Amino acid sequence: EVQLVESGGGLVQPGGSLRLSCAASGFTFNKYSMNWVRQAPGKGLEWVSYISSSSSTIYYADSVKGRFTISRDNAKNSLYLQMNSLRDEDTAVYYCARMGYYGGNDYWGQGTLVTVSS
Amino acid sequence: DIQMTQSPSSLSASVGDRVTITCRASQGISNNLAWFQQKPGKAPKSLIYAASSLQSGVPSKFSGSGSGTDFTLTISSLQPEDFATYYCQQYSTYPRTFGQGTKVEIK
Predict the structure, then answer these.
(1) Rg of the Cα trace of chain A?
(2) Residue B19 confidence (pLDDT) above 90
(3) What DSSP letter does each residue of B37-61 carry, written as one string?
(4) How many interface pairs between A and B have CB atoms less than 8 angstroms apart?
(5) Nearest by CB to B43, which of A61, A106, A110?
(6) Cβ density class A80-105: b for 16+ within 10 Å, e for less
(7) Chain B closest CA to A49's CA: distance in Å?
(8) Residue B106 pLDDT > 90, yes or no?
């Protein structure tokens, strides 16, 4: 069974940093690309970042470019999102999602809440 | 960026109704379109990919169609467990973009 479990969320002040983790199991992690997607309270879904299976290709949404860094450790079956210079508008539930062979997300984690507030 | 526009934003329907949600892309995306279902407090669940292919385990009451810029998601006979918010997403290019969501409520 495919499982994705996010952790690392919490309350942080504006300008602060946080590192999210996503532990993957139930599939061969090093064969799949991964995405982070977020959802602000009461709002829709927003794609945040993409990383290929070998980490050779990475993309970011303009809203987080230069502040967030996506990475992965295939030996540990883990995906990460380092978030720096956090802003109020980064407050959201952050989901990690596996990219299926066809290019879209097929499995999602349960999400971790990040709250940026003073 | 490709803009995805869903309609309606919300709808009220009764159990047993046939429901159709539309999604329009601001430029052609071939069939690189997915549909997700999200219930309150839960993660999105993948329903359909490649515009019309059902994800494994998803009941056949869900169907998708379309190509290019215009797409539809149809629920053939609405059941209580189907009341949720539905999102379309294009995966033709980066940045990936979602529709704003369609909330399906009980009439």
Answers:
(1) 13
(2) yes
(3) EE-TTS--EEEEETTTEEPTT--TT
(4) 59
(5) A110
(6) bbebeebeeebbbbbbbbbbbeebbb
(7) 9
(8) no
